[in-house]
Amino acid sequence: MTTDTTVLDGLDFTAFGRGPGLAVADDVADLLFREARTAAAFTPDEVSDERIAAVYDLVKWGPTALNTVPLRLLVVRTPEARQRLAAHMSEGNRERVLGAPVSLVLAADTGFHTHIPTLAPHMAALADALEGQPEQRESMARTNALIQAGYLIVGLRAAGLAAGPMGGMDADAIDQEFFAENGWKSLLVVNVGHVEGTGTHRARAERLGYAQASLTV
Amino acid sequence: MTTDTTVLDGLDFTAFGRGPGLAVADDVADLLFREARTAAAFTPDEVSDERIAAVYDLVKWGPTALNTVPLRLLVVRTPEARQRLAAHMSEGNRERVLGAPVSLVLAADTGFHTHIPTLAPHMAALADALEGQPEQRESMARTNALIQAGYLIVGLRAAGLAAGPMGGMDADAIDQEFFAENGWKSLLVVNVGHVEGTGTHRARAERLGYAQASLTV
C-alpha cells in the first residue's frame, strides 16, 4: 500500500496544488490535520463568541443519526466560571483551563428528542417514543455528540483557532455544577485560542499506519 | 448573536475568499460541511484502497486521548463480504450497502492499549495497567474512536468522496461476523463513493442554531 502517488483512480491531484488522493489543497490539509497540534498554551488574544458561533454554524451541518445533532456547547469565559470548571478537571489540566482565552465543555443533550419534530419531521413520532427511554436517549446522545465533537475540533481549526481537547476531568461533577437542570452530559473540554507556532514543545507522536489500522474483505 | 459579518476579532475574512469567521475558503467550507450531504446512492465509479488509505493518512493526525487512536476500518469490497455485512444491517440500509462501491465498518479496537508504548512512550506503563481493565478499555476505545469517526467523515469529503454514514445495524452480529478474533467493536457503517450532484433528493433538514445549542458562563 502506497499513497505517495499524485494520480489515484485516474484523477491527477497535482492540479491546483492538491495533495495525493485529496481534493483540498495541501495548506488546508495541513491546517486541519497534518500540521495542527493539540495546544497546551495560548497567546492572550481573545476569542469572541462570534468566532465560536461561526465554527458552530459550519459544523452543525455534519451528519448525525436521524439528524439529531445532540452536541451542545458550554462556553466558559468569565474568571469565576473558569474557576468552577477548573475545580473539576484532573490536576494536570487545571492550569490549562485557567490559561486559555475560552474553554468549551462539549456535552450531549439527553433531551435532544424534543427537537425531532423540527429536525426530522418524517420521524416526528419518535419524540414521544423516546420520552420514556432515558437510557436509549443517553446512548444515542453520547454516540452522536462524540462524532460531532470530531467535526467541531476540525471546525475550530478551519476557523484558524487552536484546540486543546482534554478528557481528564470529573464528568459527573461538571454535570452537577453546570447541567443540573438541562440534562446535558459532559463529554470533553476543549481549550480554544491562538498559539505561537504549533503551540506545543513536544515532538509529534507516532500514529498507526493504514496497514495496522485496517482490514479489507 | 450574528455571524453575518466578514470582520471578526479585528480580522478581515473577506481577503482570499474566506467566509465569515473562517480561515478556509468558501469552497472548502462547502465541500467539507455546508454543501456536503449524506449520500444514499452512488455512481458505479470505483474507490481504490489507495484513496481510502490517503483519507486515513490525513485523519490519523487528529487528536485522541493519550494519542490512543483506537479507530479501525474494515473495508468491505467483495460481493461476498458485502452480502455478509448487509445481512446485519437494518432493512432500510441493506440495499445501500449492496449499492455502494465500498463500505467501511468503523470500529473501536479494545486492544488499543498494546500500542501505547509506541504511540505514547511517556505513558508506556499504562499498557500493562489497562490489560486487566477490559471495561475501561472498551469505554476509552469507543469514546475516542467516535471522535475519530467525525474526523474520518470530514476526511472522506476532503478527498472528494461522498459519505453515507449509517447507525442502523446489529452491531453485536457484525462483531461476531467480522471481529470475533481481534476484539474490534463496530460503531457505524459508512458507504463511500461518488455521487451525481449532492447524492440525495431530500431537501436539507434544519439544524439547531447556535443560541439553541450553547450556553455561555
TrEMBL record, chains A, B:
Enumerate the GO terms in the molecular function aspect.
oxidoreductase activity
In terms of InterPro entries, this protein maps to: Nitroreductase, Nitroreductase-like, Nitroreductase_HadB/RutE
Q: Any idea where the Nitroreductase domain is?
A: 37-194
Q: Which Pfam families match?
A: Nitroreductase (PF00881)
Q: What class of enzyme is it?
A: oxidoreductase
EC number(s) reported in the record: 1.1.1.-
Q: Which UniProt keywords apply?
A: Oxidoreductase
- The source's domain of life comes to Bacteria
NCBIfam families assigned to the protein according to its UniProt record, in alphabetical order:
PRK05365.1
Q: What is this protein called?
A: 3-hydroxypropanoate dehydrogenase
Q: Which organism is it from?
A: Cellulomonas humilata
Upper classification of the source organism reads:
Bacteria, Bacillati, Actinomycetota, Actinomycetes, Micrococcales
